[in-house]
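Incident log, entry 3
Record: Neutral ceramidase (678 residues)
Problem: checksum mismatch between cached and fresh output.
Input:
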Amino acid sequence: YLVGVGRADCTGPVAQVPLMGYANPEQVGEGLLSRLYSRAFIVADPGSSTRVVFVSADIGMVSQRVRLEVLKQLQSKYGELYRQDNVILSGTHTHSGPGGYFQYTLFWITSKGLVRPALSSIVNGIVKSIDIAHENMKKGRIFINRGTVENSQINRSPFSYLENPEAERNRYSSNTDKEMVVLKMVDEDGHELGLISWFAVHPVSMNNSNHLVNSDNVGYASYLFEQEKNKGMLPGKGSFVAAFASSNLGDVSPNTRGPFCANTGESCDNPQSSCPIGGAAMCMAKGPGNDMFESTRIIGQNIYLKAKELYEKASQEVTGPLRSAHQWVNMSNVTVELNDTHTVQTCKPALGHSFAAGTIDGVGAFNFTQGSVEGDPFWDQIRDQLLGEPSNETKACHKPKPILFSTGEMTWPHPWHPDIVDVQIAAIGSLAILAVPGEFTTMSGRRLREAVKSEFDSHGTRGMNVVIAGLCNVYTHYITTYEEYQVQRYEAASTIYGPHTLSAYIQLYRGLAKAIALNATQELPRGPEPPLFNVTNLTLLPALRAENAPANKTFGDVLEEVRQEYREGEVAEVTFVGANPRNSAENATEHNFLTVEKYSNISSSWRVVLNDASWDTRFYWSKGSSGQSNVTIEWHIPAGTEPGMYRLRYFGHYKKAVSLFRLVTVPFEGSSSEFQIT
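Fresh output:
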């Protein structure tokens, strides 16, 4: 094959934009723990123009809006080379990235509308990562390996899982998929190019009290792998690219100590995930660490160490033709043939009551609990008044789900949920990547993989490695099994196309697999094209205004100085007169907010040892009154830091009024005093 890899920043605004994942409007960005990246991998057939592109981006999920804008840019740059059938865009599912990049109304509610700077940085970052991969294509080889990851996940809806048939459950040793699949890419001289790992775990080690943008546990695994391979480079730099991509993580949590009542400390591992005092809102899962930062590192390191071992031992080469198949499908109206005599339908999208309960990884609002198969007259009445009552047809279609939001029947100012969904498979030789538009649960994923594998087998393409890539192309929430759906925990209440959603996807993906096996992808109907709504910017974000420094101070001045001396394990901390970080994001795509610098006696100059992409630094922005704000930079000094003289620097932009109607953006910087590490 020809192989190319690329990585580009897609962080976007780190302040004032709600973070995407927990749907908690209070969880708004206030700084940066680690940068977000898009990682692209292109595999091409040297003899033809056949290509496959796989992108994993450090974002909550790929939205339809992101995908349509990326494809548009790729078409204007590369013509017909990169298309909807051969480009897979997957989100890692971090819950700590900026939101606001959706065109469907439901997602506007908790992310203050459509936030153009957030959308643009994701779209441009993805396109740039593909550009870099495109420009660096070289002859290469791909190897595959698989193995088991321990101590890194639990099933967060075990009572739903137990609804699946006993005979089916008995075939598996665990209620989560512990298998990791790793691809290793090298050039023809054996130089290492990159890695893709697929493993099913929610990146929710950072909980919904976090306000720092970061890529969570899988992002930390990428960071460790890239730091090791790009020796001596700053984080985010260097040619080796390591993507830790999502899979069927629907019911899989990294919070391995399980659910406890926050007020009493007792377990709340019950079908309703509810506490005797305080109800479901008190039931939260704990990770393995003392706090969420440590839990993120522990889970991330587990994943990284397994990937490293599998990567080093990978010897099975991937060979064979490149093929891809794609269709757009109206998922609100699919007829599924269960057998020769029975057909069933999918439904218009709707969310159930338990959607509002959230999960043990991020609890919901009010008094909602998981596992509600009855509606609540109080909330139903409010909903009927504000948003309108669901039709009888939709109610019947979704049974036993009590509908909270009938999103498929809500169209103001735009539809609230997608109808048109991408289904897609890309095959690289013996590897089939199923790009799925949401979060399949453990058992749903197993059924889908098995069905696709047997479809390939029955058409003579035997021994395919089938892997699920999660959160691709358009976000449609969750996909549970029919049995799990019956008990209506959070994942089932969020299976938006009704009880037969999984059966519909299995039928559709079998169709794609058959077309690939029979070399008939040209004959697949394209399906109805998704809409691109004419909304470019519609947001409740506060406008950027002129800013001020306190009296007798200027931007970048130190307000609280570092100590003169630290040892490893301590935190060096400095506070500056700051400005809104959104100014920087809107000014430059890859603005670096901070550096840790070490003094070199040999060259008598300062050299940068860390940037804001480092997991050891934290950048906090706090807004004050009358246009003032502060920035605090922390460096958590790791074991093994070289003794010597250091300083912390801050780089920002502030808005200045030059006339009544005109603001200009002015760059500035600040530096701490020097300090000794002993």
